[in-house]
Amino acid sequence: MTASQSSAWEMGATVVPGKGVRFAVWAPHAQDVAVKISAPGERVVRLQASRTGYFEGFVEGLAADARYVYVLDGEKSRPDPASRFQPEGVHGPSAVVDPKAFDWTDRNWQGLALERYVIYELHVGTFTESGTFDAVIPYLRYLKQDVGVTAVELMPVAQFPGTRNWGYDGAYPFAPQNSYGGPLGLKRLVDACHAEGLAVVMDVVYNHLGPEGNYLQDFGPYFTDRYRTPWGQAINYDGPHSDPVRQFVIGNALYWVTEYHVDALRLDAIHGIYDFSARHVLQELAEVVHQEGNRSGRPIYVIAESDLNDTRVITPAAVGGHDCDAQWSDDFHHALRVALTHERQGYYQDYSGVPDVVQAIRQGFVYADRYSEYRRRRHGHCSQPVPPAQLIVFSQNHDQIGNRADGERLSARLSIGALKAAAALVLLSPNIPLLFMGEEYGEQAPFLYFIDHGDPGLSEAVRKGRREEFAHFGWREEDIPDPSSPRTFERSRVHPAASQDERSASLLRWYRALTGLRSRFPVLGAGVHGRHHDVLWSETDGAVVTVHRRTEEGSEALVIVGLNADSQPVTFRRPAGTWTLTLSGDEANFGGEGTSTFPPVLEITDVGPTITVPAFSVAVYLSTSH
Question: What backbone phi and psi angles, to 5 degrees, belong to 517?
Fold first, then answer.
């Protein structure tokens, strides 16, 4: 790690206790830069050019909470690109923050091994009525004890315009959202998560910045027109003057894991990151983050979202990869969605349902150098050599719900049996499972796309873009809620831990039973190569999926999941042995009938037995043959 990388997050305002504040900014597009203090008092201090494109200066007597902007060439007043806090929003002045002012209590926190992660993705603004970091804290025990998750993933919290946004329109990567509670609120939340034994995953966006309040181009060549992304110009990772840009982004990653004690970073849509340098920025970022983990004595992970099915993302740097620790697997979701709903619009046309679910369990990616009708080209790498614990799987997430016209969840259209089957496939997979807030009790509220832009033209552009995007799925314009309407945001609020009816309570108990099995029995946890074998085989008989798993020590499990809409006879001829029923979705406690056709003890030989598998049923057996 170079000196410039190690100090990159110290750009902006740095408090020197008892003396004042040091300011530093990279602004090669300006000839002259000054810092204008607006509170307390008013003064303007000219910064000195210290090296190519950098300006620095010291203001005596200044302390935390002071408000300031940079003045470029005596004309443009702009917030700090590395602002730690934007108390008045994306267009207002920046505030000086003293990172040492918070008294952390997590000194004994040692983090969690990645294979122990059961991730719960939440949106801070809609998770509670008040929509703040502090309001999440009372629910952490519920998440740990009643749901059984081990990690909380926050959708992006970097300062975005207004108060309603998914977070992917952030314009100040270092500044926690003011309406959520700012820096202190976020630190209190992370500290409380660690006190509860929960890891924290921060969703960060390094493929673009939001259009409103984004003044980076006034400072320097942060963007390039050599590449185009769905969000406009790409970030300049490999062109002229790209070194400081890379340091800005890598410094941001380091900032979250040091100043905020975050345990993992989820990198949004890395297929929108273009870098043809000899050393890819993702590799450099992962190296710096891992070094910090080694220094701090706790594991820190880099998790990528990518639709490329490219195993280089999670391949070690020594053999030419980017060395990220894990990546999302959309194929698992798409195959499961088609199996459950039989949708075939848009990218779902590429998936056959149950057979592809089995393929995803068996080898990870479904599209591994395979022709895609949707893309009209071959797609993906084979992920079979990849440890299953490096793939994140889910039946729902913010994108796959929120990027539907009406934001509908699976719980809005599926029976409780189908929901339990989907949960079993996710939570008993050899991969790292991810749940989306509310799915554990069958939340009925949609999760819609919402914005709060101050520019009416920008709001209209978003509306138009959403209509065009949804046209590929055949959804009607009149069914798409207005993203800028406050009602669209309010409709998306969830009601955690408020199981209003027996259906919700039964489903919540089912999720807790599954996470409990995963925790108690390593054979049902994440598969890590070199430590134990994982999926020996998975197959389908009609719409019934059977998965056989075994550890290196000889423990074995048999997971039977019916994705069948009607009862179906299945003959089990392998794996031979005696199997004891450990969990059944047919139990009344989980919303079942209370009777089951799955026998308490299953004797499998090469001639049977044949069992009638009820519609959307789940049975988990452990071997008693060893």
Answer: -60, -45
Phi then psi dihedrals of residue 585, to 5 deg: -70, -10
The dihedrals phi and psi of 605, each to the nearest 5 degrees, come to: -130, -175
Phi, psi angle pair for 625, to nearest 5°: -85, -10
Closest C-alpha to 399, from 117, 139, 123: 123
Between β-strands 33-39 and 43-46, what pairing exists: parallel, antiparallel or unpaired? antiparallel
As a whole number of angstroms, the distance between CA 409 and CA 428 comes to 21
List the one residue out of 516, 212, 547, 505 whose CA is nearest residue 358: 547
Note if the pTM is more than 0.85. yes
**Do 606 and 592 meet the contact criterion of CB atoms below 8 Å apart?**
no
Token code pair at residue 125: 């603004």
Check if the beta carbon of residue 78 is closer than 8 Å to that of residue 72: yes
Q: How many whole angstroms separate alpha carbon 355 and alpha carbon 494?
A: 33
State yes or no: pLDDT of 532 exceeds 60.
no
- The token pair that represents 254 in the structure block: 């380091």
β-bridge pairing 391-393 and 432-436: parallel
Model confidence at 4, in pLDDT bands (50, 70, 90)?
A: very low
Do the beta carbons of residue 249 and residue 223 sit within 8 Å? no
| Overall average pLDDT of the 334-360 stretch | 95
Q: What is residue 39's predicted lDDT score, i.e. its pLDDT?
A: 87
**408 is a catalytic site residue:** no
Q: Does residue 231 register a pLDDT over 90? A: no
d(CA 26, CA 11): 8
Q: Which of 115, 263, 268, 586 is catalytic?
A: 268
Buried b (16+ CB within 10 A) or exposed e, 180-190: bbbbebbbbbb
DSSP string, 148-207: ---EEEEPP-EE-SSS---STT-SEEEEE-GGGTHHHHHHHHHHHHHHTT-EEEEEE--S
Cβ(446)–Cβ(411) below 8 Å: no
**What does the alpha-carbon distance between residue 159 and residue 252 come to, in Å, rounded to a whole number?**
13
Beta-carbon count within 10 A of 73 CB: 13
Q: At what angle do helices 330-341 and 416-427 cross, to 10 degrees?
A: 160
List, in order of start, the domains of the chain with CATH numbers.
3-101 (2.60.40.10), 205-308+317-322 (no CATH), 533-623 (2.60.40.1180)
Question: In terms of C-beta density within 10 A (0-12 exposed, 13-18 middle, 19 or more buried), how is residue 444 classed?
Answer: middle
Which pLDDT score is estimated for 625?
Answer: 61
Peptide bond into 609 cis (omega under 30): yes
Active-site entry in 212, 275, 305, 586: 305
- Cα angle 457-459-463, degrees, rounded to a multiple of 5: 115
Question: What tens digit of pLDDT does each residue of 167-213 get?
Answer: 999 999 999 999 999 999 999 999 999 999 999 999 999 999 999 99
Q: Which residues pair with 431 in a beta bridge?
A: none
Q: Is 305 in the active site?
A: yes
Q: What mean pLDDT value characterizes the chain?
A: 93
Which pLDDT score, from 0 to 100, does residue 477 have? 74
The torsion angles phi and psi of 473, rounded to 5 degrees, stand at: -100, 0
Of 472 and 150, more confident: 150
Residue 79: name the closest of 180, 179, 159 by CA.
159
- Cβ proximity of 592 and 584 under 8 Å: yes
Beta-carbon neighbour count of residue 147 at 10 Å? Answer: 21
498 pLDDT band, cuts 50/70/90, is low
